[in-house]
Amino acid sequence: MRQECRVTVHEDNELTTIEVMGNLTAAAEEAMDTAYQQACRHNTRKILTKFDGESRINSAGIAIMIDLVMESREKRIQIFVSGLSNQNQKIFELVGLTKYVTVVTSEEEVRGS
Amino acid sequence: MSLEAENHRAEEFTEDALARRVYHLNTLYELNQEISTLKDVHAVLNASLLYLTGVFGLRRGLIAIYKGDEPQPHKFVSRGMDESAEIRWCQQLESYLPLHVMEEVCITENDSDSPLAALLKGYELCIWLPLKVDEQTWGGIALGDKLSGMEFTADDMELLSTIAMTLQNVLNNVLLIEALNESINKEKRIRTVFQRYAPETVINEVLNPSNEELLLGKSEAVRRMFDEIISRLEEQHVLERDLEDAYNVQKYLLPDRPPQILGIEIAPRSIPARYVCGDFYDFISLSPHEVGVSLADISGKGMPAAMIATMLQTATRTCVRSYYSIPSILAVLNRFMFQHTEDHRYATMFYGHVDTKERTFTYSNAGHPPPILCRNGEVQLLEVGGTFIGMFEQCSYNQDAISLQSRDVLVIYSDGVTDAGTSADTDEPDDAFGQERLETIIATHSTLSADALLDRIIAEVTGYANRQKQFDDITLIVMKVE
Q1: How far apart, in whole angstroms, are the C-alpha atoms of residue B419 and residue B16?
Q2: Omega into B98 within 30° of 0, i.e. cis?
Q3: Which residues pair with B66 in a beta bridge?
Q4: How far is residue A58's CA from residue B371's CA, in Å, rounded to a whole number?
């Protein structure tokens, strides 16, 4: 049930993707922060945070996402999120994150937006 | 019960409400697990604020801890605030010490009179919850508004208070450990451990200063061996201390005496098979004439079952205080437990709500041995409910309500009572004390007081099982309507 979180960044001209494999919890805070700073290096305007569909995001993980979203608002970076399980999507709605991120079903949807 | 509470109870139990409730319980559980392992005050505060930010979806927040009359925080953590705001906060709070900071503030549109409320507003913070860690240490949690734009609800404040209590307990321990570490050096600790565990002859030999010097100084191999022994003894000491801690936590969580509810006598008892117990019972007073009664039995025994029992007991208290219906409470607990037990553990659980004013007992039975209601010598089993909790992600439960009559006797028990007499190896049901025998005792002695009947049942069960070592936890609640 508990998986170690692995965070990687993929960049191309149009989109930067932060890929999150495993559970997003307090243990992933440093990795997420490093990945986000890396993602912001090249004047990025869109970041897709891509979960693997199985990841569990707990309260600490939500707080990490809030940091990311708030910093992106200041930098005028648009945040997209994909791969949320139904449960995680419900939590995003409950805490108000869906007001600040666009939930998408695929990377293509972001590229087309 | 207030109108607000009535409305809350009547709230339609939607999937959203279930998800929110489970999310809150998960937060409490995981936060507790995380900060209980931390040894540093700053790390505890950081983790707590991280979870608070996530559970409420906050823009900003801070936790400040003060020592005595020192105006500057002993420890301070914040999220979503810039550095200058932190510095200004630390300076400005000084003006409000010590008169105002122990008040709880929740700013609404109509509430900005207090100086502390004005201070909070200046930092776009809207909640201040004071913390009292020990005689010397105090502080508070200040939270900003939510991303959702929603106000803090009564549920939120209940959760916040529970988190604050958890934080206070953990801080208390961490500060104590810090103080101990400062005052006791390693050498003294090793000697203490060694004196506790090593045979007396060895102690006399080794702790003789000249011998110790000889042993440690002359041979590197002996020195290594000595270090290894000390290290193992220390590990054992830590394990035993953990077990003692677990026992104390359980003891602390179990009600030290039954609640005083008008019109009903209540007598509980729990006898663990090992050091700690995988059963728990609890009473949650809801008014002078209403009480929630729970009894659960976690699959397995020993420390793993005890840890789950503690978790489930805390979760139950939180759910019950939120005024959901009984089937909803069990549905939430079921999902919560399903998510937090990785090795397919489950629990049988009985939850009932006594109202002596209305003279009703409303209950739901989640796969638990059916409690026995004895009325005028006749026995009735309380079986309505559903399956075990924690085994399947989605479960629904039914409830039943019975009218209480004078001299009714209700006995809620774990299967350690009816299985007494069997052994862990054979588990032959033919040897067990059995439900029938229990029913007979209750019917025969139903005129006794709740306390006396409880003693009688325990005496019969332990007398019966005398030939066998107790291998399961035994827990009983006897209630008698006056």
Answers
A1: 41
A2: yes
A3: B138
A4: 37
- Identify the CATH class of B38-180: alpha beta
Q: Whole-number mean pLDDT of chain B?
A: 79
How many separate domains does chain A show? Answer: 1
- pLDDT at residue number B26: 85
Are B38-180 and B257-481 the same fold in CATH?
no
Model confidence band, residue B314 (pLDDT cutoffs 50, 70, 90):
confident
From CA B142, how far away is CA B149, in angstroms rounded?
Answer: 17
Put the strands of the sheet holding A102-103 in their side by side order: A6-11, A16-21, A46-51, A78-82, A102-103
Phi, psi of B117 (to 5 degrees): -60, -40
**Residue partners of B122: CB distance under 8 A and separation at least 6:** B92
The reply to whether residue A94 touches residue B80, judged by beta carbons under 8 angstroms, is no
| Residue A48 domain flag | yes
Query: For residue range B123-150, what is the model confidence (pLDDT) as tens digits?
Result: 888 898 888 887 777 888 999 999 999 9
Contacts of the segment B453-460: beta carbons below 8 A, 24+ positions apart: B453/B267, B453/B409, B453/B411, B453/B478, B453/B480, B454/B267, B454/B268, B454/B269, B454/B478, B457/B411, B457/B417, B458/B269, B458/B271, B460/B433
Superfamily holding B257-481: PPM-type phosphatase domain (3.60.40.10)
Per-residue pLDDT tens for A51-82?
Answer: 998 888 999 999 999 999 999 999 999 999 99
A66 Cβ under 8 Å from any chain B Cβ: yes
Q: Which of A28, A17, A23, A26 is nearest to A50 (CA)?
A: A17
| pLDDT tens-digit readout, B199-258 | 555 555 555 555 555 555 555 665 666 666 666 666 666 666 666 666 666 665 667 678
Taking residues B11-19, what's their average pLDDT? 62
Most A-contacting residue of B20, B147, B163 (CB-CB within 10 A), to test interface: B147
Determine, yes or no, domain membership for A64: yes
Residue B342: Cβ within 10 Å count: 8
Report helix angle B15-36 to A86-95, nearest 10.
90
ipTM: 0.94
The verdict on a CB contact (< 8 Å) between B54 and A66 is yes
- Whether A1 is covered by a domain: the verdict is no
**In which domain, by residue range, is A75 found?**
6-111
Nearest to B334 by CA among B364, B306, B292: B364
Looking at the complex, does the CB of residue A33 fall below 8 Å from at least one CB of chain B?
A: no
Q: How many CB pairs under 8 A join A and B?
A: 84
B336 touches A: beta carbon within 8 Å? no
